[in-house]
Amino acid sequence: MSGLKTAIIRTGLETLYFSGANVVMRPFVRGVGVILTLHHVRPPRPDRFQPNRLLEVTPGFLESVARYLRRRRLDLISLDEMHRRLAEGDCGRRFVCVTIDDGYRDTLQWAYPILKKHEIPFAVYIPTSFPDRLGELWWLALEAVVARNMRISLLIDGEERGFECRTLAEKRHLFEELYGWVRSFTTEDQLRNVVRDLCGRYQVDIAAFCEELCMGWDELARLAADPLVTIGAHTVNHVMLAKVTERSARSEMEMSRAVIEAALGTRPAHLSYPVGDRTSAGPREFRIAAELGFKTAVTTRPGVLFREHREHLTGLPRISLNGEHQQLRYVRVLLSGTATAVWNGFQRVDAA
Ligand SMILES: [Zn+2]
């Protein structure tokens, strides 16, 4: 995320907090509950070039969020219970569900002990190619290519182009450009081909990230054995489903559920769309997930839950605990629903 965008978000959150607007608006915008999103939970790294830092929070921050959630008059519930409440309209008490995407090893090492200590149920969404050690964590590969080189060249529209990435500022700028470029492709294949090409040119072993960072099936089995934990599906190859054919999208969802069931003995009833923004999951994916019988499916579209989401259980919004904004007062504003209400133009459901 660009520094400017980060600054604007932070200013908005600060304004909502210090103006007291979040308190005034709360009754109208807070909805019935919130699904929180996490990715990595781990101690901070010293590297100055960390373009994916928004995807990680520290164990200390998670601990303070967990304590805060426990102090509030909120129900901390599982996805099954959330589904029941939304489906039955049993929305008398406000709730929070905690979800963690991708199945990183730090979920087991850092997040699990904290959530367990506070008895907070949580879900972990698994792209099955990660524990199968075949996954491509392409955003980390892109980071590694830029971090480890002073200059890179690549083919853009059939033309060889070179970029300097010597200084921290150049690295940040180039990563942002490359990230924006690959995300603008209309197909997932185009993105993967560019990243594979870069990995080949600059000796980045893309498969190694799985082994190093993601839980294997034995580790997942340990987590899954705890009744506090729900294992959800997150496709096989972590693809932006809206950028593949309907047939592939359906098979990605269906196969990940089947593989998890075969490996862990429980059939996932909940799904998370990889990347999850509107370029990655839309009405077609919401329909397919419903047709496949998933009870719920979550996006990364920002928002709290309203009773109206009962009609859109496979296109639910979430609120991300963003590594760039690790302040409890931001969490308070986000949980109040005011920030996302402003971002969404006070529209409660965004399922289009
Ligand atoms: Zn993911």
In words, what does this structure look like?
- With 352 residues, this protein is of the alpha/beta class.
- It has 14 helices and 12 strands.
- The strands form 3 sheets. Strands 1, 4, 5, 6, 9, 10, 11 and 12 form an 8-stranded parallel β-sheet that branches.
- Strand 4 (75-76), helix 4 (79-88) and strand 5 (95-101) form a beta-alpha-beta unit.
- Helix 1 packs across helix 13.
- The longest helix has 19 residues, at 246-264.
- The radius of gyration is 20 Å and the shape is globular.
- The chain starts with a helix and ends in a 9-residue tail after the last helix.
- Zinc ion (ZN) binds next to loops.
Characteristics:
single chain, 352 residues, alpha/beta, eight-stranded parallel β-sheet, two-stranded parallel sheet, 14 helices, binds zinc ion
Beta-strand segment tally? 12
Shape: globular
Provide mean pLDDT, rounded.
Answer: 92
- Fraction of residues in β-strands: 15-25%
Count of DSSP H/I helices: 14
Bound molecules: zinc ion
**Largest sheet entry:** 8 strands, parallel
CA radius of gyration? 20 Å
Share in helix: 40-55%
Low-confidence stretches: none
N-end to C-end Cα span: 24 Å
Helix/sheet category: alpha/beta
Order of helices and strands: HHEEEHEHEHEHEEHHHHEHEHEEHH
